[in-house]
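Technical annex, item 7. During the second reporting period the consortium partners agreed on a shared format for inverse folding records so that results from different sites could be compared directly. Each record opens with the tokenized structure and is followed by the designed sequence. A conforming record, contributed by the partner at site C, is shown below for reference.
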């Protein structure tokens, strides 16, 4: 009786070992998870900018005019996929009549991911 092939020895339809496919998929998932973790901060900043704009009843166009930028730049910032520039954030802060920007952290009671908070 011939030896039974192990799962790692089974050839996938594209010609690679399934174990190779699994290793590649795991590496891609890890890269994706790392990229998403990095982008999470940008998404949090984007939500703060959207909330700021809504609190002052500003359209993207109106906010852009107040800070000397374009609607497209505000849209990119609010998309959460672009790295925010501190100078842009400072200008947005000054677009509101009575606003303060507080950058900080709060210690979680239970171990969790860090989160950006605004006051």
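Designed sequence (site C submission):
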């Amino acid at each position: 009786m011939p030896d039974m092939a192990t799962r790692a020895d089974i050839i996938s339809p594209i010609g690679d070992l399934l174990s190779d496919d699994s290793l590649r998929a795991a590496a891609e998932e890890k890269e994706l998870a790392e990229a998403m973790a990095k982008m999470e901060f940008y998404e949090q900043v984007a939500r703060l900018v959207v909330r700021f704009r809504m609190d002052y009843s500003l359209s993207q166009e109106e906010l852009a005019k107040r800070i000397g930028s374009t609607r497209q730049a505000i849209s990119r910032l609010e998309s959460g996929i672009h790295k925010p520039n501190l100078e842009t954030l400072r200008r947005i802060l000054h677009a509101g009549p009575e606003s303060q920007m507080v950058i900080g952290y709060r210690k979680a009671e239970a171990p969790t991911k860090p989160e950006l908070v605004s006051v």
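Residues 23-119 form a domain with the 434 Repressor (Amino-terminal Domain) fold (CATH 1.10.260.40). The chain has a mean pLDDT of 78. All partners now use this format for quarterly exchanges.
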